Amino acid sequence: MKLKSITLGSMMMLSLSTIGASENLPMTEIQGKQYYYYEVQKNDSLYGIAKRMGWDVAIIVEAHPGSENNLRKGQRIYYPVDTTTATSEVAGTQPSQQLDAVYHEVKRGETVYSIAKLYGLTPDDIYAVNPSAHYGIKAGERLVVQDSKMLTEADESTVVYYTAHEGESMLDVAQSFSTSIEDILRLNPGLSESDFGEGVTVRIQPNTDRMKEEVRSIEKREVDSFAPYCIERNDTWTSIAEAHGITIQELREANEGITELKKGRYLSIPVFETVSIEERYVPEDPREFTLEGRQELYDEVHHVTTEVEQEQSVDVTIMLTVGDNRNREAEFLRGMLVAVDEMKQNPYKINLHVYD
Fold first, then answer.
1. What is the C-alpha separation between 66 and 47, in angstroms, rounded?
2. Residues 272-286: tens digit of each pLDDT
3. Is 274 exposed, middle or buried (0-12, 13-18, 19+ CB in 10 A)?
4. Could you say which of 24, 241, 306, 324 would form a disulfide bridge with 251 (CB–CB 3.0 to 4.6 Å)?
């Protein structure tokens, strides 16, 4: 029993030390994604580096094809920061959820949206436990999927009261609370833009924008892997970048800290791929950005009829009587309907009422 305690303690210390080793490494950002990087030393092995840093060997190999048995001294090894962070959080703070986690293996053609729908989740639920999915997913990758009841969200249905400050417009307030002018108008009957100003208190339901979110697919260029390159005589940043079809900025981002190109030194060449990722966005109502548009929103919310519409509205009432003239009245009614039908192309609203 005592031996078991020592073993468990040792394992915990080893786990903490590997996480710490990784966090002490320098980081760089390439195409908006952060990486730890480690410069290979003499006698280093891929598995030794992975064990020392607490990294997943499969992720290293995927980012550095052919590196299993071909590491070069001075070569840089890159590892995604979000992968390490997610692993640390799950292992360190949520052991029970990790044990109960359900995994889904991504199939070709699947998207975060389709996978979320399959398990009754939202894309945000998937991103919450799989941060790297923000950068795209690939066939064969394993994602953690959980019952949506296990994922807690703030109650966004609570209506709050807000008093406008000096200089604030209704659009400013709507954007601050991730809502829309239309939603503010619906919650505050009678309120118009001319009434809104400093000291006016309004009812607001925050985050209604999320209810209007839509999903679209966009093409994104991202790093797929890294290839080592040995600097040759007369090489320049420009010549190396052009030879590999990348920009000088992309080359420098992948080799942060290297200022001088010395013959025999290794650079990391980022290899890019174009992936299709899903982006969630809230469609904007262009009417919110113009005075006329906001007035149109007000009229729409409060069912206001404009003066022009009122002038062009005609009320017609026909009363049919019972008696010998009934056939004649029916003919008159048919003629009236023909006349009304012929006027349908004109800008008139005819309210026709027929009483028998």
1. 13
2. 888 887 778 888 888
3. exposed
4. 241
State if pTM tops 0.85. no
Asked whether 265 and 39 are in contact (CB, 8 A), the reply is no
End-to-end CA distance of the chain: 98
Helix, strand, coil shares, percent, the chain, to 5? 40, 20, 35
SS3 224: strand
Query: How far is 62 from 83, CA to CA, in rounded Å?
Result: 13
Q: Where are the alpha helices (DSSP H) in the chain?
A: 2-23, 46-53, 57-63, 81-93, 95-100, 112-118, 123-129, 170-176, 181-187, 237-243, 248-253, 291-301, 307-311, 326-342
Please give the residue that has the higher pLDDT: either 117 or 12.
117
Is residue 206 classed as helix, strand or coil in its secondary structure?
coil
Q: How confident is the model over 90-100, as pLDDT tens digits?
A: 344 333 333 34
Per-residue pLDDT, 61? 86
Query: Could you give all domains of the chain from N- to C-terminal order, each with its CATH number?
Result: 2-87 (3.10.350.10), 94-150 (3.10.350.10), 307-355 (no CATH)
| DSSP, residue by residue, 16-33 | HHHHHHHHTS-EEEETTE
User: Within 10 A of 337 (CB to CB), how many other CB atoms are there?
Assistant: 13
Tokens of 316: 């017609």
- For the segment 113-137, the average pLDDT, to the nearest whole number, is 80
Q: What is the pLDDT of residue 309?
A: 47
The b/e string for 114-149 (b: 16+ C-beta within 10 A; e otherwise) is: ebbeeeebbbebbbbbbebbbbbbeeebebbbbeee
Show the tokens assigned to 105.
């293996």
80: left (phi over 0), alpha (psi -120 to 50) or beta: beta
